[in-house]
Each structure stands twice: as C-alpha cells, then as structure tokens.
C-alpha cells in the first residue's frame, strides 16, 4: 500500500522572515563590525557611520511607506510573514529602540575610550579650560555666528519647515525685563551643515581634542537672543518621508516631473524624531510631537551624538595623523585576463574577459568606453547608467564620443533613489554634448548594467559588450564587490542590440539567444532552472544550487527553493542583506543554508549556479531575487559561457562558503550567528583571501609555469583545498 506524500503548506507565515525586520537584522550585522576588535579602530567608527546612514534611509523609505499605508487605512498583512503595516511598525519600533541603545553603548563605552587611549577625544564644553573656551568663542564669533538664523515661533511666525535630516536646536527663552512668570517663548536654530560638525581644539602635547558644533552653538546661543534669558536648549533631528511620488502616466516630460518632486523631498512628512538625551526640555519634546504629527514610539532619545554619519569625515581627519588606526589600504590589481601588453578590444575578440572588483581594477571598464570614444572605427556606443560617480570619467568619455561624431545612446535612470538629482544633471549634460538620452520605460526602473560598442573593422561589424552586476561608478567600484564580463560573443552582441532597440524604440520584447530580461522573464528562468535541477537530482542524486545576492524576498522563488530542498537538493545561499527565506526548517528548508558576509567591502556580486548533473550552469545578473527586480525593473541575467571562467566563479563561491571570520549563518528562527570555527581550524576571511590572490597572481602564475611548464587557470586558487574546506564545513 502506497503512503501518500505529506503536503506542506508553504504559505505558513512561520516559514518566512518579514522583509523590514530582516533588513534591521542586516543593519545589526553592520553594527557588529563596529564591535569587532579584529577591525582597526577607525574602521569601526566608519561602520558606526554606515549603520547610522543605513537607518536614515530605512526610515525615509521603508518606515515612511508603512506609515502611508496606515494613514490610508490599509491593514492587510504582507504575503510572507503575515504582518499588517501596523504590526510591522510596532515591531520595527521595538527593534530600532534596541539598536539605538546598542549604538549608544558601542560608541560611548567601547569606541570612545579606545580613542582616548590613542590621545583622541570628543570633550564636553563643560570640562574645558578658560583658554579653550576663549578659543571656541572666537571661532563662534568669527565663523559660526554669521551663519546662524534664529527662527522665532509665535502667532506671526509659525513653526518652520525644517529640512530632512537637519540637526536643530529648540531654544526656550524668557524676556529678562518682564515678570519671571512670563510664558516661555520658543525659537529654532538649525545647526549649519555647511560648517564642519566638530571643532578641533589647539593641540596640547600630541592630544587631539574635538568639540561638537552643536555644543559650541548651545554654549554661546545667548548671543543670538540679546535681552532674553535662555531657559533650555534641546538638540533634535527630524527624518522625513523622502520617497518620490512620480506621476509617470500624466508626465509630458519625466525629467521636469522629477525636478518638481525633488523640491518636495526635503519637506515630506516626519517619520522619526531623534533627541539628544543629555539635556532636553520635555515640554519642547511634547510640542514637537504634536507639531510634527508623529507617534511617541517614533521618538528616539540618543545618548551618543545625533547623526553619527559625521564619523565619515572624522575618519579622514584622524587618518592623516593616525594611519595605524586604519586597515591597510588595498589597491585593486590589474585583471588577470588583461595582464600583459594586449590591446583591450583585441583581447576581448580573442577571449571573454572576467573582472572581479574591487580585487581587480575597474579601469578596464573605464578604458572600454574611453578607447571607444577615440577609436575612429567605432560607430556607436550604447549604455545604461543607474548611478555614476560625481566626476565620472565614463560620462566624459560618452560626451567626447558624441563630439567625435559617434552615435551615442545613453539610458539614464532618473528614478534611481537618492541619485535622482545627479542623474537629472547628467542627462542634461549628455544631451548638451550631443548624446541621445532616453529615460527608460514607464513604471519600470532600468537597473541593468550593460554597454554595447559597435565597431567596423575591415568592412566587418564587430560588437563588444560589457555586462555587470554593479553600477558604472568608478568610486564605489573600489569598495563594492562586483563581477563584470567583457565579450565579443556574436549572439550576445545581437542580444545587446535588440535590448537597446527595445528600450529606445517601439518593438515587442525580443527573443534573446543568451540574455534574460525582467520584468518576469528572469523569475521564469530561475523557476525553469530549479525545476530542471530537481529533475536531474531525481535521476542522478547530485543536485546542488548556489546563489549569491544582496537580498532575497520574492515569495515565488523562495517557494521554489523550498521545493528544491524537499527534493533533497543541497542549496547554499549567500545573502548579504534582506532574506525572507528561513533555512533549516524540517520538511521545508532543511537542506538550505543561508549565510551573510559583512566586511570591509560591500558584497554586491550576484551569482547563480545550478549543477545540472555536471553541466554547471553559471549566471550573473544586475538583479537580486526580489519581487521588485522580478516585476518592476528592467534587469539582465547573463550566462558565463566559458568553462574556465565558470570554474573561476565557482572558486570564489566555495571560498566565500568556507569563510569563518566575516560570515554569519541564519538559523531556523531567522537569527544570525557567526559561523562556528574549530580551535585548530585556520581563519578564512574570504575578502582578504581574494585580495591576496589578486595581489599575488603573477607569483602564483610564475610558480605554476615553472612546475608545469604551463599555467593552468583552473588552479590559480588551490581549488581542491578550498572545496575540501567548504565540504568539511557542511
């Protein structure tokens, strides 16, 4: 008698992590890097700044969106963990208050004393000498006072519209000449962001001491209110809804529509109030809560300085004299596929080139566009731009190419969050130079990273394509891990041509040879690949899926991965940030492992691997396994076709899966823990190992040539050793 298979309800909310809470869990892992004494002291301070910056964006976008849903009366639960918007806000508030407490503890009781040991300190103005106070008074009178603007709040002057993320002082005063029972008056003074957040005191015996700008202003604030007595000074900061509402359907000019919306961003509804905990006036806080129309749970009393993002600048200030407090700087190495005297385009014609940033330099990508701009045989350049650096060499090359008479088409994504203003400016500048600028497709963000160069050589058309996981941003390419592929594959060149024609003109979605494009098609491709892996595993019993991405939230794909697990397939996921999948649940995800790597470089590479009984399908993409990437963005999934390049990508993956220093694993409840390491087990920090391999590649190559007479690219990592370490960890 056959036993019926037990049906598992994969819609059970306990099988999923809530997206917002999962993100907060990720940001805690960032905070953990500030706690980790294996990191240099200034690097730990930088992680504090990253944690603070991340939290700002979370409130401006994610919390703001949930508050909008509550205000609109929307109370349906989200479709994975089953929490309503109000339940999510309650949970977020609880977690965030805990995170702020841990931030305070880390900064005040851990990092500040460590700085003091290095003769660096932030000092309170109350503990300064008379001479130091006189120095600060001079600084205030000459450099700060002229910039300050006191804003009275009364019947004739309503509460001012304070800018998003601005630091402010609420001052209560009374008239010295009137009865002491007179009602206190209120004024607001914004701490000017155009002045450095900290003032360094004159150096004494090698000690570097700093006073925060808001403390200096508070101490001398009476100079702004002559004839009045200052009763209290409350430092506070407002975070506002910064998500743009772009009416694409009715927009005659999307660029103009976005410019109008950008003016409103700084004045969106308040979503968070931060208050300096040292000294504040409760009546002022009550007034601000009422005026800003926020809930008491959205008020955060902070013991550390407000807005720790100033530590980014402080890092640079201190590094100049205390370089030993930073991690050794890493210089990206020439890519292994381009070492030697090969000319770039000829090298691409000869073989596909794989780039691994920031271990390998981003310069070949910059050169790819720059050389095309000056090459008389190049006819056209087409490129998508999502985020670029402030002084982008790629933009300059595109402008130069247009001026040289080439056909230059640039898709500038105007809706790239928090880069809208920059991209509007770039779009205008590129158009002025003669480039054909397009903005994409209505209701979709173009997040793809692709460049097509068309060249005519000896009366033959050649197409060169760059595909990547990261932005065309030479600045972030030094700190984000990303993968890039340079290829002259004829079919990929045709696919790239069709992709750009689809975006710039009127045509049905193309049929591609190798590229897969979202919306929807990438999800369908993943489902197909997982189904095929299940079929192979049933036949051969060797199923294995590995995937690396920033975030995993798409329920359809999570369900598919659960199906693969239940079929007995081993699934290894490296997910830096949001992960709504829960591993290790019996009969649901017991064959799935999820790890997150948070280190000096921001893990940004997307890699998708399917064993397929030894066929080894390897893909990379601009897309994460998130619903927005699957449905609301133009994304590209592309294959790594060459066997030796597939092997190289697998070596990276096995190395990251063997990481036991910066890796954390998620348990079946959604919590993360550092990967356990045995006492006799060597430390494996995947980011540092990849730096070393890139730096020492020539030595490894020479050594292998001497031993074998020929360099075997498949073994430039000790692959068998890493594979053994990986399997041992399982």
**Into which percent range does the helicity of residues fall?**
25-40%
What separation lies between the terminal Cα atoms? 36 Å
Residue share in β-strands? 15-25%
Low-confidence stretches: 1-5, 704-720
Structural class: alpha/beta
Number of strands: 27
Q: What is the count of DSSP helices, taking H or I runs of 4+ residues?
A: 20
Cα gyration radius (Å)? 28 Å
Shape: globular
Describe the sheet with the most strands.
Answer: 10 strands, mixed
> What is the oligomer described by this structure?
single chain
Quote the average pLDDT: 91
Summarize the structure.
The chain has 730 residues and is an alpha/beta fold. The chain is built from 20 helices and 27 strands. The strands form four sheets. Strands 14, 18, 19, 20, 21, 23, 24, 25, 26 and 27 form a ten-stranded mixed sheet that branches. Strands 10, 11, 12, 13, 15, 16, 17 and 22 form an eight-stranded mixed sheet that branches. A six-stranded mixed sheet has the order 2-4-3-7-8-9, sandwiched between helices.
Molecular structure report:
One of its GO terms (molecular function) is polyphosphate kinase activity. It is a single chain. The protein has about 725 residues and is an alpha/beta fold. The protein is built from 20 helices and 27 strands. The strands form four sheets. Strands 14, 18, 19, 20, 21, 23, 24, 25, 26 and 27 form a ten-stranded mixed beta sheet that branches. Strands 10, 11, 12, 13, 15, 16, 17 and 22 form an eight-stranded mixed beta sheet that branches. The chain has a six-stranded mixed beta sheet with strand order 2-4-3-7-8-9, with helices on both faces. Strand 11, helix 11 (about 395-405) and strand 12 (about 405-410) form a beta-alpha-beta unit. The chain is globular. The two termini are about 35 Å apart.
């Amino acid at each position: 008698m056959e036993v019926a298979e037990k049906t598992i309800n994969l819609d059970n909310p306990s099988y999923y992590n809530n997206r917002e809470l999962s993100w907060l869990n990720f940001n805690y892992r960032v905070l953990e890097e500030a706690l980790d004494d294996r990191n240099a002291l200034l690097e730990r301070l930088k992680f504090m700044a990253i944690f603070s910056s991340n939290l700002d964006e979370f409130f401006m976008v994610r919390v703001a969106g949930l508050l909008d849903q509550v205000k609109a009366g929307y109370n349906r639960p989200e479709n994975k963990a089953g929490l309503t918007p109000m339940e999510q806000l309650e949970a977020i508030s609880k977690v965030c208050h805990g995170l702020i407490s841990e931030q305070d503890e880390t900064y005040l009781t851990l990092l500040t004393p460590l700085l003091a040991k290095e003769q660096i300190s932030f000092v309170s103005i109350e503990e300064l000498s008379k001479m130091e106070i006189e120095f600060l008074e001079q600084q205030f009178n000459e450099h700060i006072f002229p910039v300050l603007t006191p804003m009275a709040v009364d019947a004739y002057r309503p509460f001012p519209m304070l800018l998003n993320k601005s630091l402010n002082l609420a001052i209560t005063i009374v008239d010295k000449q009137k009865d002491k029972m007179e009602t206190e008056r209120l004024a607001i003074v914004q701490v000017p962001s155009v002045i450095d957040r900290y003032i360094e005191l004159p150096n004494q015996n090698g000690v570097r001491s700093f006073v925060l700008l808001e403390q200096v202003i508070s101490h001398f604030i009476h100079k702004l209110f002559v004839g009045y007595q200052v009763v209290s000074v409350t430092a506070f900061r407002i975070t506002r809804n910064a998500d743009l509402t772009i009416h694409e359907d009715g927009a005659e000019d999307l660029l103009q529509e976005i410019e109008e919306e950008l003016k409103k961003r700084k004045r969106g509804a308040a979503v968070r109030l931060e208050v300096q905990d040292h000294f504040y006036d409760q009546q002022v806080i009550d007034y601000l809560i009422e005026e800003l129309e926020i809930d008491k749970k959205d008020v955060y009393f902070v013991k550390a300085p407000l807005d720790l993002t100033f530590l980014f600048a402080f890092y640079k200030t201190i590094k100049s004299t205390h370089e030993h407090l930073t991690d050794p700087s890493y210089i990206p190495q020439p890519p292994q596929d381009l070492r030697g005297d090969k000319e770039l385009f000829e090298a691409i014609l000869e073989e596909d080139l794989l780039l691994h940033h920031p271990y390998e330099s981003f310069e070949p990508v910059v050169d790819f566009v720059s050389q095309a701009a000056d090459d008389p045989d190049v006819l056209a350049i087409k490129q998508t731009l999502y985020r670029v650096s402030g002084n982008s060499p790629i933009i300059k090359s595109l402008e130069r190419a247009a001026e040289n008479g080439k056909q230059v088409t640039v898709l500038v994504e105007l809706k790239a969050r928090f880069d809208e203003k920059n991209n509007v400016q770039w779009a205008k500048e590129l158009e002025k130079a003669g480039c054909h600028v397009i903005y994409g497709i209505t209701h979709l963000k173009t997040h793809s990273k692709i460049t097509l160069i068309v060249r005519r050589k000896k009366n033959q058309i050649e197409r060169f394509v760059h595909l990547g996981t990261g932005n065309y941003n030479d600045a972030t390419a030094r700190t984000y891990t990303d993968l890039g592929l340079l290829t002259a594959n004829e079919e990929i060149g045709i696919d790239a041509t069709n992709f750009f024609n689809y975006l710039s003109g009127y045509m049905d979605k193309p049929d591609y040879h190798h590229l897969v494009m979202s919306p929807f098609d990438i999800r369908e491709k993943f489902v197909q690949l997982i189904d095929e892996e299940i079929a192979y595993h049933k036949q051969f019993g060797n199923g294995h899926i590995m995937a690396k991405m920033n975030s995993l939230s798409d329920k359809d794909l999570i369900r598919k991965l659960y199906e693969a697990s239940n079929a007995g397939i081993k699934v290894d996921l490296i997910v830096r940030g949001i992960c709504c999948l829960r591993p290790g649940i019996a009969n649901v995800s017991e064959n799935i492992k999820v790890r997150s790597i948070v280190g000096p470089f921001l893990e940004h590479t997307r890699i998708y691997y399917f064993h397929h009984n030894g066929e080894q399908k390897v893909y990379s993409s601009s897309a994460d396994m998130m619903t927005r990437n699957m449905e609301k963005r133009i994304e590209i999934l592309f294959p790594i076709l060459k066997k030796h390049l597939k092997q190289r990508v697998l070596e990276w993956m096995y190395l990251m899966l063997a990481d036991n220093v910066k890796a954390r694993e998620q348990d079946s409840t959604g919590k993360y823990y550092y990967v356990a390491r045995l006492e006799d087990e060597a430390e494996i920090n995947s980011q540092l190992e990849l730096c070393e391999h890139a730096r020492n590649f020539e030595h490894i190559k020479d050594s292998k040539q001497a031993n074998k007479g020929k360099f075997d690219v498949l073994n430039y990592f000790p692959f068998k050793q890493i594979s053994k370490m990986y399997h041992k960890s399982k």
